[in-house]
Write the structure tokens for this entry.
Amino acid sequence: MIYILTLCIVTILILRRYFPVIGLKCMKWGEIDIKNITVMDVRDYNDSYKVPIQGAVNIPIAYLNRFYAEIPNRVLYIVASNSVEKNMGVRILRKKGFRIIGCSILSHEYKLLNNKRNTLSNC
């Protein structure tokens, strides 16, 4: 009985972290209207400092529960460095009552080249 309960708890924890969020659109950077939304950067401070996104609100995943009140109460677009950050960030922000219209994962090429091309990839 304890093994089944432990297995259920572990399964739930893994699904929350790795399973894609239902109903979330993965959009390209050019498809969003930046004027009407808030771009939310949930990458680590080291990554967001090296490759900043102009006009984005930078709050890493580890600090979302503590600093979510600093996020403007508007529609959000999430930028993450990997799918785990994206899934966790969307779930935390939805739980806090934010509406998320889409997301992007910052591509590896953008990190390496650091150029101004549109290299935000789909989720």
The two ends are 38 Å apart (CA to CA). The longest strand covers residues 100-106.
